[in-house]
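Hi R.,

Here's the chain you asked about this morning:
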Amino acid sequence: MTNRYLLSIIILLFTNSILSAQMQSGGLPLGLSQPELLLPAPLLSVAGPDVAALRKADERNPSNRFAAPVEVDVDINSHGNWTLLDDGTQVWQLRLRVPEAQGLLLFYEDFNLPLGAKMFVYSPSTNQVMGAYTGQTRHRTDRLFTGIIYGEEVIVEYQAPADNFTVPFHIWRVDVVYKDDGPDKDLLNFGFGSSSDCHDNVACPEADEWQNERNAAARIIVVVEEGSGYCTGTLVNNTAQDGRLLFLSAFHCMDTYTPIYDLWRFDFYYASSDCENPAEEPEFRSVLGCDSLAGRRAMDFLLLDLYTETTIGMEFHFAGWDRSGVAPDSSAIIHHPRGDIQKIGQANTTATIFPNQITWSNGVVTPPNHHYRVTYTNGTTEVGSSGGALLDKHHRIVGQLHGDAGTTTCDGTIAYFGRLSMAWEGPDMGSRLKEWLDPLGLLPMQLDALGGLRSALVTTDDNEPVANVGVDFYVDDQFIATTYTGTDGRLAIPQDMPTSGNLRMEFAKEGSYSNGVTITDLIKMQKHILGTELMSSYKLLACDVNNSNSLTTLDMIRIRKLILTLTPDFGSGSVASWQFFSADHTFPDPLNPWFPAPRNNIFNFNMETGFRLPDFIAVKSGDANGNASVD
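And the predicted structure, written out as C-alpha cells:
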C-alpha cells in the first residue's frame, strides 16, 4: 500500500540581522551616525530574476526556494566611491538596489579585512544594521554571507585604515527574495514571531526537564546554489566524547539542490527568556559553515561537522542517542518552526514504526519501516521544523523530523521521523552513522549526553589547530591525568573526570624556542614600534618575550640572541616557548592586550552548575608573522 503525505518543505522569506557576537563587534556605520562626513553613496541598480517564471516553476513543482541568486561582480575598485576623513580613514560606500525585492542577501568571497578595518551592511530606509565586521571575523574559508537586509536597497560601508589599499572582499552573489504578499501569504510568513500559536516556548513550564537540550538545537539557514531555506538540527555526542560538533538534521533540507555548505549558518540560543513570546527579537550566536559527513534519503538523515572558527565562548550540549530501534513511549522535539524562536513539541503516547512506504509531495518515496509515526500531545510541526531531533524520555535522540501528514492544527499533529537505528548501517561511511557516532568502535546501543566538561579546542589566533599540547588536570589540587591535543586541536577530557570542584589546568607544548622565530619577526616588531605597521593583540603578546607587559627593543634583543643561537631560550624571567590564553577573553584596547593575571599557562575554574570549559588560543612566543609549526 502506498500512502501520500505532505513534505515539510523548507521555505525562507526573511531572517533576522543579529549574527554571531564573534562575527560582529557592534557599532554604527558613519552613513547613519555621521552622514555629513561622507559623499553620497553611488547607486548600483541590478536587474532581479524573472519572477513570473520562478512562480510558474514553483506552481509546477512545489519548491523551498524563496529567493533567486543574481550574479554580481562588485569590489572597491569596480564600484562605489571613497571619502577621505581628516584622521586619514578611508570610507568606501556602495548603494545596491534590486527593484521590488522583498529582501537582499549579500555573499562575499576573498573576504580578508586588514587590522583596524571595519565593514557594515545596512538598510538606508529602516536603519537595520549588520556589523561591524573586522579582521577578527573568523571563518574557515574566505567566503561570508551577512543575512537578509529587508527591502530592495542595501548600503555596504567599508572603513579602511590610512594608507591601506588592500581589496578586502569581492561581492559575487546577491540573493533576491521574490515571493510577495499574494494569496499564499500565510505560507510565506517566516522568521521571528511567525510560527503558530500552537507552540510552547522552551522557557515554558512544559519544557522544564528539557533545558539542557536548548543548547544542542539550532536553526539552520540553508544556502544552496538555487536559494536558501530554514531547517532545524541538533548537536549529537559520540563515543570519543570529544565535543566534536556533529550536527544531525534532515536530508531533504538540501535534497535535489546544490548545497554550499561553507555558507550554511547555525543559529544557537535563538529562544525566548520566558514563557511569553517576546516583543523584541532575542539575540543569538551563530556558527558559520560545515562539512557534510553522511546522509541518506531513505530515512532522511544528514550528519554535518560544524566549523569551529565562530564558536569561541559558546556553550553547547551534545545530545545522547539510542540506536536500538525501539519506538519511544513518550518523546519531545525542540525545533524552529518557520524559522521562529525555539519551541517544544511533545508526545505523551507511544510512537509506532510506520510499516508502509511514504510518497512525499516532492516525489521522493521512502521505504517501509524507516520512519516513526508520532502524534503530538502538545504542539505541532511547521516548515522549518524539519531535521529537529526526536528525543525519548531518557533525552536520547532516536530520529529526526522528516514531515507531517498534513494535519498541522493545534495538538494532534501526526509527524514522521526518520529512524536513527536505520541510519546506523549503510553501504559506506557517507551513508551511515556508525563510524561518526562511534569512532572508538565500542558498539554501544545507547550513549548519554556529553556533560559540562566538553573537549576544548586549541588553535592559533589564525584558527590553525595546534597539536601535541599537553594539559595536566587537577581537581581540588589532586592530579587527575595528562591529556594531549590531536591534529585537529581537540583536547580530550580525562576519563572519570569529576564534574564539580576547583579545576586547575596547566598547559605546555614541547619544542624548540626557535620554532618560527626569524629575522622577519624582528622586522615586523620594529615596524610596530615605529607605528608604521601595527600588529594584532595576540602577536603583541607573542613578541613580549621578556614578560614585561610591553613590547620594546629589549624584547628584540632577546629574540636576536635566540636567532644567533647565543641562548637556547629567551633568557631569565621570560615567557614559555608557547603561551596559552582563554579564547573567551576580549581586548578592549587591541594595542594594549596585556592581562593583569600572570602569563604562566595555568588556568583555574570553579566547576559549578552550568560550567563549560572554554576554548584556548595558543601563541608561539617570538613569532610575529604566524609561521611557527603547530605539529
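Residues 200-446 form a domain with the Thrombin, subunit H fold (CATH 2.40.10.120).

Let me know if you need anything else.
M.
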